Amino acid sequence: MKRIYSLLSVSLLIGLSGCLPMTFSHDGEIDFTQYSSVYVQPIELTGDAVFSDLDTATQRYLVDELKSVSGFTQVTDDPNVATDAVLVVRLRVDQDYEYRNDREYRTYSSSANFTLRTQSGTTIVSSDVSDDNEELRESQEDALDEVAHFFLAPYRI
């Protein structure tokens, strides 16, 4: 009889634990009420897998990603639009070759250093991200996705 009560008690506890509410939240890396708009400068590309340049297609990709996931209410690539902050990104993409079984395999390593600063040049936040992929474009985009996710919009679920 004591064993039956123990089993019932354990079953009841397991059943009740499935009903406990769970909260997932993210507060954001910056104060999006103070810095609600951002200008994304053309991205400086370096490395042995790309032509050193200021790339507007890469800039456009990051702008679109920030519009999609970030807490900024306005994201622009137009330097003439008034914004609260400026995002400066330097993207380095290098390739690595490996030979196995008489076949060449390439891996692309992308690392992005980014700084969000005020219009007057004061650094708000700065960080680095990186990603590897077998496709050049995917490696670049994955690293830029990490930059956008750094500025993920606050949420509470």
Describe what this molecule looks like in 3D.
The chain is built from three helices and nine strands; from the N terminus they run αββββαββββαβ. It is α/β, with parallel strands linked by helices and 157 residues long. Strands 2, 3, 4, 5, 6, 7 and 8 form a seven-stranded mixed β-sheet that branches. Strand 7 and strand 8 (123-133) form a beta hairpin. The longest helix is centred in the N-terminal third of the chain and has 16 residues, at 2-17. The two termini are 43 Å apart. The model has no long low-confidence stretch (mean pLDDT 85).
Question: Which SSEs are present, and which pair or pack?
Answer:
Blueprint: H1 2-17, E1 25-26, E2 37-40, E3 43-46, E4 53-55, H2 56-69, E5 74-76, E6 85-100, E7 103-118, E8 123-133, H3 136-150, E9 155-156
Parallel strand pairs: 2-5, 2-6, 3-6
Antiparallel strand pairs: 1-9, 3-4, 6-7, 7-8
Number of helices, where a helix is a run of at least 4 consecutive DSSP H or I residues: 3
The helical percent reads 25-40%
Rounded mean pLDDT is: 85
Q: Would you count the extended β strands for me?
A: 9
Rg over CA atoms, rounded to whole Å, is 23 Å
Proportion of residues in β-strands: 35-45%
What spatial form do the alpha-carbon principal axes imply?
globular
Low-confidence stretches: none
Search tags:
two-stranded antiparallel ribbon, 39% strand, alpha/beta
